[in-house]
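User: Can you predict the 3D structure of Phospholipid-transporting ATPase? Sequence below.
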Amino acid sequence: MAPRSPRHDIEEDDSADLDHDLRLRTVRTAASTLAESIHTEERRLKRRKTRRMALKIFFRRQSDKGKDRGKGAGEGEDQTGKPAVITGERRRIYVNAEIPLGDLDQHGDPIVQYPRNKIRTSKYTIVTFIPKNLFEQFRRVANVYFLILVILQIFPMFGSSTPQIAMLPLVFILVVTAIKDGIEDYRRARLDEEVNNSATTKLGQWRNVNRAKDPRSWLEKLRGVPHPDKITRGVRKLRERDHQDLQHLVLVKNNGIGSVRSSGTSFVTDTPDKSSVSLESEEGPLSKDHLYPPTPHGGHATGLATPASSIGTKGVDAAFTRARALSSAAESSRSSRVSVGVMDWEHRSSGTAQWERTLWKKLYVGDIVLLRENDQVPADILVLSTSDADGLCYVETKNLDGETNLKPRKSLKATSSISSDEDLEHASFVIDSEPPHANLYTYQGVLRYSNKGNDGSGQTTNKVEPVTINELLLRGCTLRNTDWVIGLVAFTGKDTKILLNGGDTPSKRSKIEKETNFNVIMNFGLLLIMCLVTGIVNGVFLDKTGTSADYFELGAETSSSNAVNAIITFVSGLVAFQNIVPISLYISIEIVKTIQAFFIFQDVDMYYAPLDSACVPKTWNISDDLGQIAYIFSDKTGTLTQNVMEFQRCSINGVPYGEGITEAMKGAAIRTGQDLSADPAAEAAELLRTKATMIDAMKSRWRNPYLQEDTLTLLSPKLIQHLGDTSNPQREKIMGFFRALALCHTVLPDKPEPREQPYLIQYKAESPDEVALVGAARDVGFPFLIRSNNALEIEVLGQVETYVPLRVLEFNSTRKRMSVIVRNPEGQIVLYCKGADSVIYERLAKDHNQELKDATHRDLDTFANGGLRTLCLAYRYLSEDEYASWLRVSEEAAAAVDDRDDKIEEANEQIEHSLTVLGATALEDKLQEGVPDAIELLHKAGIKLWILTGDKLQTAIEIGFSCNLLTNLMEVMIISADSASEARNQIEGGLNKIASMTRSGRTEKRTSDGYGATGFAVVIDGDTLRYALSEELKPLFLTLGTQCDTVVCCRVSPAQKALTVKLVKEGRNVMTLAIGDGANDVAMIQEAHVGCGLLGKEGSQAAMSADYAFAQFRFLTKLLLVHGRWSYIRIAEMHANFFYKNVIWTVAMFWFLFWNSFDATYLFEYTFILLQNLAFTSLPVIVMGAFDQDVNAKAAMAFPQLYKRGVLGLDYTRAKFWAYMFDGLYQSAIVYFVTFLVWSLGTASSWDGRDVGALADFGTTAGVAALIASNIYVGLNTKYWTVMTWVVIIGSILLIFLWIAIYSAFVTYTFNSEAEIIFPLFNFWATVVLVNAWALMPRFVWNFIQQAFMPLDRDIVREMWVAGDLKDKLGIRRRKGSRSDTSITGRDEVVSDTFSDTTDPEAYVPLSAHPYISSPTPRPDIEGMEKGLANPAIQADYHDGVHSPIPLSYYSPSAIRSAMPSPNVATFHDAATARSSDLLSHAAADDPRDSMETVQAPWTQPVSQGNLAAYSAQPHDSGEYEMRPSRQREVSGTSSSSVLSTSTYLTASNGPPTPDPDDDNETIRDMRRESNASYASTYSPRAL
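Assistant: Sure. Here are the predicted structure tokens for Phospholipid-transporting ATPase:
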């Protein structure tokens, strides 16, 4: 049989993910999803390797090398899969080198000038604030219209008597908005100033040739910006403070012989200052100098090969130690006088260079800076030299990507010998750098220098050295575990990568504000129609002759031309009817949104005490967008997780160890139907007892001074028992397992306080996984102590063991494993390997114990399905010959020029085989508090969550299952391709999969409490996402992603995050929210409609650029479901009522024109027109917009489905706008014609006998009626009446009469004594009452019909709140005298007003466990409504038919519901469905998640399975009901502290009630006893 070509292999492998019907293969459980992700990547690597082989056959090797280079995400390609094009000119940075004359201007300064390091994220400056802010404000169509009207009113011919007053509303709104925008921007500017004034150390008294002698622009000189070389007051104070520290500073390179590192060992000062750091040896069990970090391959750059044991001596004099260090530094300097690398000792220098303190904003490209441990990197800096002999340094990129693990960077080889300011003066080189760009993961540059050979010939050789991202420190990183770094500033200010990823701060406008432009245009169209009719008809009347105007109005017209007069009348109509386009709306909106922002800031439920931070609104004008979010795009690390790993479980020799249930395991258990009815408080107490027992057992069996009890997370007394029993065969297996954990890693030990706490050892590593693994070994009794070039020292149950490190086979995403080869104390060579279980199992010995393999694999699946991160450990012994033979192969592969990576991998494969399983580990990636419950609430609210993370595929999948974003009921599709065609095939396969399962009926419709049996999720990696975001595949990927419940994007760059958000935002025209905590999230935060940034202990670039900044992800639920929903409904109602009240007022004036020849005469007195929006009707609408509540905050959290109306945009529609407009039109007719009818019945007489027939009398009556109707109308639409509401509405009505009385007291031409005329008049009061009755009756009747027969969700919840016992169930104290008799113990319980965040058991709030009844007399006409909220039925307390009381527990509602069967879910009858709106059909057609769900009160007790048939047979007036269990999206239970957070709510409690202040101590004790004895029912999972 002929061998197949490589192409055939490719085609066969390409279709591995697809079945014969071109459907993408899916998986369900966490373990199978992780295994599938690993297999997918292996297939992908195989495809790449096969392609490379095929290319070698058909192309030449040299061409082939170029094609095979750099296919990583973001390397050589842009985010859409196309070749990357980096625009801009390359920059050259000169250090002690002459700039070519062609690059200098006439003054001798460089032609190309780079920005200084000052940043500005604020939108405005002092100069640009006014013009730029005015431009932003006049983007509103209404503002342009108002400006035109103000200009027209300057001319008296258009009927405006006081143009100065007419312009005040526009000026007021412009000023108020400008002040608000200025305050927002000022806060940003303050943060910018804090960053710009941060301190750093640079090389001073040294000429930076890359900077002009005076780099200031003419504008900066005009503004008085000081010269960069001038010492400002702040810099002077900074230098005075740090003078002593810098004056005697000597930088010493470590020689790699260290053990546990103590702080500051590479700094030596020649002063006795306490703050200075010496090299004196520390007292303690490790009396060695702690020089860090070690050289990995045993080399000593400085030539000091002193054994570790002879470095330090106990009690060495400090002065001698200092002298030794200084002598060593001097010797190093003398030995380096030979020109090595960039050093040229023949180059003349001034010798004046010295380190000096300065500010970040004073740095320029080409400056040389000195960074010390824990310093933040002030700019993008090339590493020239470090304290490590091998040039290594470590940075924490938390501000960039939210990750706290360390990332290694290295110095340039040619500059690594630099260690002093003198060295820098004699260094000469040029950096040829690429232009600045936003990609955080790539950099390409070249170091060019000349070097004289050491052969005495004196010839100069030009040399180059490549510069990559590994030699670049990015602005915002923090230097860790490295004493010092000398670097060259390459990019500053806006050219740094962190700023390029952020972009300019966008000016965001809310969705309602944009829609308001349409409403304004419609009103403007109506205005034009009225004005055209007025102008045309008035012109027709003016053409008539023989009218009274010929006698009484001579010369009254402006022009003799009737056409001109008609035009003037048209413009006068614009002025008269201008209120139909409400300028006061914008004033009121600004006031309301400011109040809403204040309420958000003051919300104590979103206050985070550890950071002393509340939710800070940074953009005030988009609060209503918070109530319409359909998609949330979230980062993972630092946003959903704490980036803290905890060792929870392990399996050793097939025996599992570890107790306690993590959040992830709770969620997994609930998803599988297990009963978790235990009290979390009792569980926590039991775990504490277990931990204490375990610690006591360890202390009694062996000595472990390095144990850190607070960090011990592996709780297993059985493990200690087996380990302490010398006769137990499992003991040796356990010891071998923990030896492997203590040796197989690249962790660096750190001893932060060697004097005070000599046994305190902390570990630093690139991955938090390794820190957790080595930390667990330390706490059990296997601490890792020393890493040096020649030794690895650990303790094994109190006995020191020393191993010789031979080789480290590093971990990478391709290998998915790492190995170490060491020589043990017995002289044997051992290989320890850890990695993914599928990778390890492929390399096990063929004769391996099958029973052990199966047992370990079962434990791995259990751990993975519980949302834990798993690793498998194995080992094998090597013979001397085998190791020597392999070492030669490995060194040859490392020295290869072509295909180096492939050869190294082939060499590793030759030794990583025939392994024996030691066991498996399970780590928990700690979620932030309340994340699972928050995600559950958001999903119930109809919001989809996409995770966009830079982490690897498996990590993202594990977190997805941990936080219940992915469930075992979901069909998970993994999309991974390395070509556009493969990506298309897999995306189309995913769509086919969804379509086939939907057609075959394998999916079930979601029920009220959760989700159907099947949902879909997509996991896609960054490489594939590049193709998916291309123009050809974007529509397909968007369709696939929006049809899935969850999308997880892995290995994505910041630009890809922004493009993904933009794709959904523009492709689906939905509201989006992005949340993150790092600089890599800034782009998507600014791209989304609403951006949220999480605050950190060290600040956050994301929070600085966000619209809302807060501390915890769980606060997002309160922000959206309460504040966002309230703001959306309030603003929507406010807009509609504003347009209504202006229509009723303006159109009433239009009706009057039919009786005055359409000459634009005012019906109302002019002051009424001015004050109508300013005083008479503004406050009720403002109070509605600021304070109205359709449901209480706790009810909104209890029923998150209420949020869906905002997702679907049902509370602010054009239909609603037109309904209010027509309502205003109808009421304007009532206002005018009813008043006209009363006045037509006969001429009334005042109390003094005078006729009441003047226009002022008629107009005032109509005006008062219209104003009162407007205010009462707002009251009818208000849902939450408070004292303020009563006062404002009644006060606004009384103000009308007060103004009439005051203004009529003045001597005026038309309004004199008006109050005396109309107030005593019966016709006046009868007209006002009659007009309001007829005008408001339709609205009152409609509200009644809608709430009684077509109630919305919120109407039912509000009735439950007012008439039912919803307050009792949610723990709200009723008003005095209105307590509900729903006590558990037979007596009224005292409940708390608010949810407490305290963990004090005395503060827990007991709630009733009785089934919920929404109303004392349930109405069948409400129970079957479309909007859901079917009245939960009263159900019996049975457990498999037997009453089974158990103590009430504190659980999240999702956890309680998931442990029990669901209550009845209504199947609506046709008659009931016919009364519903088109909401269901619209939602079902759009998106399954967006359909309105039947909402069930969370505390409702379900019926047992045995009673389903009997109960379902009961008749119901509102239709037929079907009882069935609800398969729902389950979440884990939460801790007692997180249950009381804002993202959860209480369902039941066994804690004591909160006593009344008047209760005595005896009563309080009785209440607590009764509460502790209370019970509630639970149900078996078999009922499901």
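The CA atoms of residues 576 and 1160 lie 7 Å apart. Residues 70-112+197-217+339-505 form a domain with the Calcium-transporting ATPase, cytoplasmic transduction domain A fold (CATH 2.70.150.10).
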